[in-house]
């Protein structure tokens, strides 16, 4: 099936303690997946692929709530979570922590507003 | 599918296109024929719905051919209906433009990364359409497409939109709540994703848009979809989804909050106390040292548990050892600060290395004795840490040099303060220690959530009610308060507060006389003395217990679930209840002291050698060891063991004791006629049990109906030899009935009474069951501890008063038990009503009342009548079940036994009347007239005697000697008995104290069947008391009852019983006991013998407690 790679990305076991959420886009993957393919949404900035250190600093196990986004563009939940432009997949509802400062600076230089995923600033 | 919806999607998509103008290209995706086909389909669909017949005719051959051609496409196209709508919309534009290239769209698709998501779906369709393409090419396209993914631009373009603009609108799909198995929420959410991918290109793709789960909402999954049907389709077949429990629409205004739920954030800051959840250090307290940037790992400092006694072979090389400890994990080593010397002694110098200030040992870092280790946040428990003072001190001890001690204490104070909110109760005395009202103190009136209302006390604010946050108040104690520890390691300690520093209260324990410091939150003011957990399991403080075949010991301290026991060798042991094989009774044991005199339990003795300790004999073991108790000694709770041979009586005229003791034994007249063991006359046990040898029938249980003979009794338990099968069974007495020679059955305790009325006084079995003593269990009255130890707490003066009568036996009659009886349901009172009373009180012998005090079970009117005071009653008492319930009782119960007087002084706690009573046993015996004097002949004396006594006598005389009874105004006062015999129970009906409520009292007719009163027609009927007037003595008392069915008639008072409360908030009247006459409401579900009541007074609400059988339900006014 052509969906192979996508299916691979879906964590096989919810109980797996190893699940990590990206601090920037909140996608949830196993560390192996992050290492192999990076973050499907923000790899350009985070550059997680093949870099365990980056993975530890830019992803976290400390998240709450899993959200499966099947149709990101039409889903309100995805819009609310600001993930409607991202690939479909499994995301975390809330991720605790902030991206490292260098990434934050990088975002700023691109004129992108950083929104932490911990729901601290709800405007 | 409605037009409106279509339109909306179009609008949305247009907007999208404006956002990303690149998407414009994707419009070229579809081939023109396809557009046409689609539109035709749409038309057809509509026509299908509206007028099918017409359509049939209208269809041209061409059109139908087209239709057939596109049939399979249609399924693919309609997979995502919204897309179709979009496409069809674009089609029109394109058609107008008229330029589209068949070949171009794939390239544009691949080249344009930004639009790839949309393309993902379109491509899928394209693939379907272009079935003729080679698989190689498909693969190539795919790899191109997915290969390009990594290069995608992170735009974060939606980040600028304020969250509030993202609120759901009516156009958005709805959220549906689906019930799932708790714990499987995440799996189900993931399964939905996988399922959607799996079935994406099948005939039935999932139409849900999203699904999510929140950790704080267990058992629920939320699915975003346009209809419930889509949800059902999506979750159908997933394990753990409870479709049957319904799929509920989430109101639009609640949608956002579902995603906004925040876990109660427990922030970890350096210095916070946490507990480790798992592993070797599970449950250990640790202090946060640092936290990693992402907040996942926490550096902790805590006390290591290093195994300093590893197995020999293991110590040799570290690897092996490691395996063992992790593998077996048998005993975890105790907490102990890291000590370099100790560790290298065991493990060798090689395994410990030192870097700077830090030791490294087995890959762990040790600093200043503590281990420093990183833990995952999830491996720690941050809530309910409740560090104890001891634990904190362990930490601070080593930190003295650092000086951050105070900071730590403030952290713990903070932690404990949080907990303090939950321990506040109305009535607590609190003070405000922060905020505007700091310094104010008052009594808690009400607690609602985090707000407490207090009634302030003090100069200015006196009486004002103030609302305060619960966290800014703390319990207030002042030196001199008597407090009890409610929680923690010192639970149930009581003591006198000596100092209060902030929230740390230091008090001197009543038990150990040692200073104990606890947090004020763990304290409560309490009047009771001593540890309320004096009883653990079946054992009680100061019990003599058998530890093993050779060892006995005395419990000198009870802890939560263990005892400290001093054994006969003077060693202290910590034992669990299960390590005790049995409790021994040394009440009958005697020994000989250094002067050859007899020692018995409860004698006050002193050591003649050694430390010359004094004490009261608790137990004697094998006539050789004596366990003594003296509250003045701190060690071992005041219990010590010594040899009897090194003891001497402390009685100033010890010589007097001796002849008395001996006399009573030598004098056959004084001896129990029943022939107790010589030398054990003290307890006057007499025959082992009057029930032994009785022929009985079992009336309850599996053996019901069997007849047998009682072979042995032990408290409430009998061993009965059945006639059938030659079997001996053990059974409770209350399951037995005595089988008379004529075949009738009578309750064991209730011999036929004879005149008048022929009622058995034993009463109906259920009444007896209500008697806690009969059950042999712990007596609630005592357990409550209002008078935990009447013998020790200074009731003696009353006796001195009563011992104005020269007769020590009269004292016996007024044993402190009577004082107690005025407050607690007293089994002795039953004695007052035993037929024995009739007999013995006919000879106006107050000693009989003494005997009766203990002799509530004296069922032998004959022997009573004949033998006067020498009733074997006490014997019966001891054998009758309640003697087992508490040693204190058995002592007192045994006291009236004739020869026991010398030592009976012991339990009075003083030497005062012991000697006085000792010399005169003989006079009391032969001169009943003398002993009789106080009561019948000097009624005037009554008001001076303790209430309990007079009450008791009143009742007993009422029953027995009408003439005498009328002398006493106390006749109206019912004795505080219950259950055993209701004859006196109705006296409350005539109690003036209850007068105002009497007409509301709900009563029931009870016991008429038994006596065949009025044919038993009124048995069980419920009604209210219309009136009750006391008839002259000698007549049956009656009361006018209005039954609930409207009938009213007068009923013999003795068949009228109050209805006991059985549910919350029932209004009840206390008809007996301390709170007599109080109308109150039931505060707790009245399912135990003691019921908590609330009394609403004019100013305040009082909570009190009363025995359930002392309560009568009231009708509403």
TrEMBL record, chain A:
Where in or outside the cell it occurs: the entry states:
Chromosome, Centromere; Nucleus
Under the heading Pfam families, the entry gives: Spt4
Q: Which GO terms describe its biological process?
A: regulation of DNA-templated transcription; transcription elongation-coupled chromatin remodeling
**InterPro entries reported for this sequence:** RPABC4/Spt4 (IPR029040), Spt4 (IPR009287), Spt4/RpoE2_Znf (IPR022800), Spt4_sf (IPR038510)
Q: Which UniProt keywords apply?
A: Centromere, Metal-binding, Nucleus, Transcription, Zinc, Zinc-finger
Q: Which GO terms of the cellular component aspect does the record hold? A: chromosome, centromeric region; DSIF complex
Chief location of this protein? nucleus
Spell out the coiled coil positions from the record: none
| Annotated ranges, domain Spt4/RpoE2 zinc finger | 19-96
MF terms in GO: RNA polymerase II complex binding; zinc ion binding
| SUPFAM superfamilies reported in the protein's UniProt record | RNA polymerase subunits (SSF63393)
Give the source's domain of life in one word: Eukaryota
Protein family: Belongs to the SPT4 family.
Protein's job? The SPT4-SPT5 complex mediates both activation and inhibition of transcription elongation, and plays a role in pre-mRNA processing. This complex seems to be important for the stability of the RNA polymerase II elongation machinery on the chromatin template but not for the inherent ability of this machinery to translocate down the gene.
Query: Subunit structure of this entry?
Result: Component of the SPT4-SPT5 complex. Interacts with RNA polymerase II.
Its name, as the record gives it, is: Transcription elongation factor SPT4
* Organism lineage: Eukaryota, Fungi, Dikarya, Basidiomycota, Agaricomycotina
Automatic annotation (TrEMBL), chain B:
Query: Keyword Lyase: yes or no?
Result: no
Q: Which GO terms describe its molecular function?
A: mRNA binding
Signal peptide bounds: none
Instruction: State where the protein is found.
Output: Nucleus
Point to the regions of Basic residues compositional bias.
63-76
Could you tell me which residue ranges the KOW domain spans? 267-294, 423-450, 476-503, 598-623, 689-716, 1061-1088
* Residue span(s) of domain NusG-like N-terminal: 172-262
Query: Per the UniProt entry, what are the Gene Ontology biological process annotations, in alphabetical order?
Result: mRNA processing; regulation of DNA-templated transcription elongation; regulation of transcription by RNA polymerase II; transcription elongation by RNA polymerase II
On assembly, the entry states: Component of the SPT4-SPT5 complex. Interacts with RNA polymerase II.
Q: What does this protein do?
A: The SPT4-SPT5 complex mediates both activation and inhibition of transcription elongation, and plays a role in pre-mRNA processing. This complex seems to be important for the stability of the RNA polymerase II elongation machinery on the chromatin template but not for the inherent ability of this machinery to translocate down the gene.
Family according to the record: Belongs to the SPT5 family.
Protein name (database record): Transcription elongation factor SPT5
Its source organism is Amanita muscaria (strain Koide BX008)
